[in-house]
Write a structure and sequence with these properties.
The structure is a single chain. By secondary structure, the chain is α/β, with parallel strands linked by helices. The chain contains 11 helices and 15 strands. The radius of gyration is 27 Å and the shape is globular. It starts with 32 loop residues before the first strand and ends in a 10-residue tail after the last helix.
Length: 428
């Protein structure tokens, strides 16, 4: 059983303008924003694993390679950011946030591997999640690992490949998980520092520079095929979708046009595929989402340009008319007060045995109690709102002949699990 311990994260996000690869340009990466993430940092006092047999620490290697990579990428026109530039630690959430703040196009994490078996030494490149749902990251990962095998030295020269980070964490690595909705990203593992021969190579700044050059070559090959992008024709924040509405995306192939493989298009709403149509003349992809019964929908656009590079399926969130109707109030306190007013009317309706009024006021009370919790989960009267929801369900069950036994049981369990009541005890 192999145990791997090096986790490096670099981030890339999609910028406002689509980078265009220009073969004739002396700066072939011009317009591309790249986040380099040298993994770990300042862990010598407490991390006794990430160190080789001769004392070389992974975080030192990562930073040296990253510094060389930064300079090489700048020379080729890229705009480069780093999560750290010295031997200091940066939280995983902070690393992901920096990639988003700087609106990067790519996230590149520099790591090196460690294992209890010191004979192991080969390259690995991780991407987040399911390969089919993260194709742009996979494209880059496959290019990088092949360049590592071709240009670098390992004890198992043909070993290693591009793997999902779900193999090491059930939810994937933090930095890739927290950036995948915005940009492609990979974690490169350029050999094992726990292997004596591997550590000796990685101690050499000449070899560190060589590794940085391998990353550059991989990025040049990837960028030469264009970084395609899908952009909503209208900002999602400007819309409340109705059932009849379609959504249009302007597609750019990253090479100055909109040449795409029509048969490769797919649009997912959540995990369900929805219809789409492609106009190759205008470069517009029209999508027909399923609006009914949804307050918010999330769309991801999949496709490949004619050179073969995949769109990164960035998440686009759209509110619907159902959301607009649901969010009749935007203040949790006012929503709760409305819920209490409707519940008071409901109690009068119950006394009068007015079925129509019971139906009306119970639904209204449920709506406002639930809305108050959605607007502010841990508010001062959250438990009262949850009790109000339970009371409404019980009343509906009793007076409207609804079988709500499962819903009532779930609500009782929720109250017990999330809102414990302090019991009073007498002092002896």
């Amino acid at each position: 059983m192999y145990i791997f311990f090096s986790f490096l994260f670099t981030i890339t996000t999609l910028s406002g303008n689509t980078p265009v690869m220009n073969k004739e340009n002396a700066k072939p990466l011009e317009g591309i924003r790249i986040m380099i993430d040298p993994g770990h940092g300042d862990t010598a006092l407490y991390d006794f694993f990430r160190v080789g047999p001769a004392g070389e620490r992974e975080e030192w290697i990562n930073l040296r390679v990253a510094n060389y990579l930064k300079e090489l990428l700048i020379q080729r026109g890229a705009t480069v950011f780093m999560t750290r530039e010295s031997d200091k630690d940066v939280g995983l959430g902070g690393r992901a946030a920096l990639a988003s703040i700087h609106k990067c196009d790519l996230f590149i994490a520099i790591h090196h591997n460690g294992c209890l078996y010191d004979t192991l030494d080969y390259p690995l490149v991780y991407f987040w999640g399911n390969a089919e749902e993260n194709p742009a990251s996979v494209d880059l990962a496959l290019i990088l690992v092949e360049e590592m095998k071709k240009q670098m030295t390992f004890e198992q020269q043909e070993g290693g490949s591009a793997y999902s980070d779900f193999l090491i964490y059930s939810r994937g690595t933090s930095v890739l998980r927290n950036t995948v909705a915005l940009m492609p990203g990979i974690i490169g593992e350029g050999g094992f520092f726990t292997n004596p021969a591997g550590e000796k190579r990685l101690q050499s700044e000449v070899y560190n520079l060589k590794e940085a050059e391998v990353y550059v070559d991989a990025l040049l090959k990837y960028a030469a095929k264009g970084l395609p992008k899908a952009t909503p024709a209208k900002e999602p924040s400007d819309l409340f979708l109705e059932e009849k509405d379609s959504i249009q995306f302007k597609l750019q192939d990253g090479l100055g046009g909109h040449a795409f493989k029509e048969q490769e298009f797919k649009v997912l709403q959540g995990q369900q595929e929805v219809p789409c149509s492609w106009d190759h003349q205008s470069g517009i992809l029209t999508v027909k989402p399923q609006v009914k019964d949804h307050k918010v929908i999330t769309l991801r656009v999949f496709g490949r340009n004619q050179r073969g590079n995949a769109l990164h399926p960035k998440e686009f969130h759209y509110k619907t008319v159902n959301y607009q109707q649901w969010h009749t109030l935007e203040d949790w306190k006012k929503a709760f007060e409305q819920g209490e007013m409707q519940f008071a009317q409901l109690k009068h309706a119950v006394k009068a045995k007015n079925t129509q009024a019971i139906r009306l006021h119970s639904e209204e009370a449920l709506h406002f109690f639930r809305l108050s919790l959605e607007l502010q989960h841990a508010n001062p009267v959250a438990r009262k709102a949850e009790v109000g929801i339970l009371d409404c369900l019980v009343i509906q069950s009793q007076f409207l002949n609804k079988d709500l036994s499962e819903e009532i049981a779930r609500q009782k369990s929720r109250l017990a699990a999330f809102y414990p009541i302090q019991t009073q005890t007498q002092d002896n």
